[in-house]
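Dear support,

Our group has been running a series of protein-ligand predictions, and this particular one with pyridoxal-5'-phosphate is the one our PI (initials K.S.) wants archived with full inputs and outputs. We had some confusion internally about which version of the output was final, so please treat the block below as the authoritative record. The input we submitted was:
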Amino acid sequence: MVKTQSLKRDLGLVCSLILNIFFLFKVGGEWNLSWSKRAASEAEAVAAISCSGHGRAYLDGLVLDGNEGPACECNTCYGGPDCSHFFPDCAVNADGGDPLFLEPFWMQQAASSALLVAGWHRMSYSYGDQSTISQELERHIRKLHDIVGNAATEGRYVVFGAGSTQLLNAAVYALSPDNSSSPARVVASIPFYPVYELQTDIFNSVDFQFQGDTSLWKNKSDSDTEVIEFVTSPNNPDGQLNKAVLHGPNVKAIHDHAYYWPHFTAIPAPADSDVMVFTLSKLTGHAGSRFGWAIIKDKVIYQRMVTYIALNTMGVSRDSQLRALKLIKSSSCNGRKGDI
Ligand SMILES: Cc1ncc(COP(=O)(O)O)c(C=O)c1O
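Confirmed final output from the archive:
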């Protein structure tokens, strides 16, 4: 009897709790937002600041004395409090590859790309499966490649990096011999993206060294020396769909496919190499989020890259992974295979 009464009481409590939650949050079929309201209004208020179409205000922008909100950050050649002042004699940087041209696209996708992050979002060093990789993001990356048809992912491993810049060196490390008396020679075809050389040099490793233009190694690739060739397709700076120049048992290649997307080039076939590197910076234009990924055929190479990333940065920022997930979902939500 006593048991039945306490069961009834517990059931009553649970029902009342459910009803309370229901009425608290759902009024007239709409979610009645609570803690997220302030963040949403702040985001919209900053987005509404007019910078004359020549700049933008950001939530984390500098708040100048006398201002209530963040100040406008003006595009090159523009200035003044609302960026309306044009400097006719200013120099334009034609060298950098900052993908801001995609900003108007994202402003059109304001609702599908916006993200509100709770103060307690993913505070841990790892995800629930103890990895530092969001499985949901990995699933969406594979799906995106499938829709676009620009890379084979089936049966491959995926590793994330803080931009493809981190992955490029992770790949050089992973492909280099361990404890060999002779370092792997790292090469790229001129004209090449200068970071390959600068990054390989700065690590000053005994396991790998930059050796310049690939063509110098054309007749030496069957020697015992290990060679790692950067193959950039499309190439930065000339847009060529480069292919590997060197072949042989001691030659490994890192295929940098930063620009292998339909908004930069035609996609004749899915890329299918052993080591392929992609980046959010050129796919969606969010270079500031520092997110890239590599698709790897060989398990040992994949594991060496994972070790490098773990020791270098303990994985990629969970905030960046969340942002990448939102942006990739927004870009591919209605996509069907073959849709471009
Ligand atoms: C060919 C190429 N690879 C890699 C990168 C680096 O991109 P991320 O922003 O992912 O580090 C760039 C950047 O301009 C690039 O042009």
